[in-house]
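Predict structure. Chain length: 597.
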Amino acid sequence: MQRKILTVSLILFQLSLTFITFTNAADFGSPRALKEQTIALLQESKSNNTTLNSKLDFASNSITKSLNDKYWDTDWRLLITDLDFVPYDPMGLAIPDTTIRVFTNEQTAVSFLNNLEFAQKETCLKNLADADKIIVNEEIKATKIYQGINDEIDAAIKSAEEFYQEGVNSITTNPLQAVEKFKKAWEKVIKAKGLLTQEAKETLAQKAVLDMENGVNLGDHTIIFAAAFMLQELDKTAVPYLLSAIKDETKNEMLRMLLIELLGSTDDETVIADLKEILATNQSEVLRSEAAQSLAFIKQDKAVAGLIYALENDPSSNVRSSAALSLGVSGNETAIPALINALNDSNNMVRTNALRGLGGLKATTALPQIKAKLNDPDKHVRYTAAQIIKELGGKSEIADLLPALKDEDTFVRESALETLKSLVSSEDTLIIPDLINTVVNDRDGQVSRAAAEVLIKIGPPAVADLITAYSSANKNARVHLAYALGEIGSPEAIPVLTKTLSSDHKTDAINAAFAIYKLGDKDNMYNFIVNILQDENEYDGARESAAIVLGKMGDKRAVPALENALQDEELFVRGAAAIALYEITGKKYECDWQDNN
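Prediction complete.
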């Protein structure tokens, strides 16, 4: 059974048992974002064969932060596998196991870093050794379920535990030795797995299915995940026991749904036939929907045919929706006509997932039908259509997106602008008036800023229109217009921006000053903004804005003024100063976060 991370249903079930808040991967400064940067830096160091001192120091700090992340294990495992290192397979088993690939990549990263010289080398090596410790410990715990089957397995597990403990003991004093010990522990784990007889595997498969049933009945996600892990480890041996429980209509529907999901990890012909049968005939739309999702992982024509049939014929919109999404990841272009037809389904989620399916199949031939969905009565469909055009479209789609800038839904307008940003160039001057109008008149600040981003992408050809608009725009619009002028970098904008410096609206003046700063007048504009921060007679919103902009400038001259602002009487000014100081220095400053009012 191919190793994969359990998908929608098991995750949803876990979330029904515990309340978990996940960080958006794209958020600046989030643990996941820091790890993504770390991996990129390590990979760059490897490919360029250079020391890259400052970047590796940053990587070290990022790894340290990632080890403190509550969701370290899942996030780091997925990211570390992107490193282009050759897996180490001492037993010659070539086991298709994510954990093994992760561990070998982690090892290679340690070896690679050891050959470089940079300031935080020892810290970085220790942190990566800590990563090895976590991964090996998890493997040992997972393998303990094999204990008692025979003496050889027990001896291998015991030896793995001994090497593991030796590694733990040497992490601080000798991280390279720790890595070597963890490698030996891991080899013993692999040996223990290799000693399983077929009869033992069958016994474990039966027990794992019963354990999962018990976990579902008790609402214990820890038991469920342990049983699922074991069933995945047991490969195709588990399939007959999964099928038997799935076909037993006396079993809990949640259990059967999770077992169907596990079936999606195999390309066994019998499994395809059974999943198709569930999809076509089962009375439960939950199980039919899950069967559709599992078939998505089986890259065979027979699986795709069943999904197409469900998309075109199933009475449940949930099942049709799952089938559409699954066809999108099937990689089979024969599904494109059915997905195009599904764009006219009566259910908005089916239409939405049909769009996603076409995007997944890179169906550029369907762009005319996709563009038509920008006028769909449902806002989710319109939003998704704009997103898919971003993935598939080109210059010819730009004009089709302009009406969406006036859509009643904020997210649709943002989605259209995001797509336009990916498509436009300096040649697209005809759309400048539409974008200027959006910046100036849209009622949502995020949409206005997104339109400004598109104008920045167009560049210098937009400057004249931006200057004209800035002269007569309200202060809310001038924020975004000034931002665009500063980012494009055209000095001819300085005179009109300078007029705003005397505005009674100090935040408006600060934004203009920041744009002029970026256009080259750094000393005067720095002094202008610092003076606002230090003026006790200015209202707190102006002082807060000044601190924020100083942080964006990254000008180290502002550090003393910002440190003084940590004592400001207003909470938000103190907070903005602390954040700005961190942006400039990389250091965390203590700040009184209590509201004194």
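Summary: The two ends are 62 Å apart (CA to CA).
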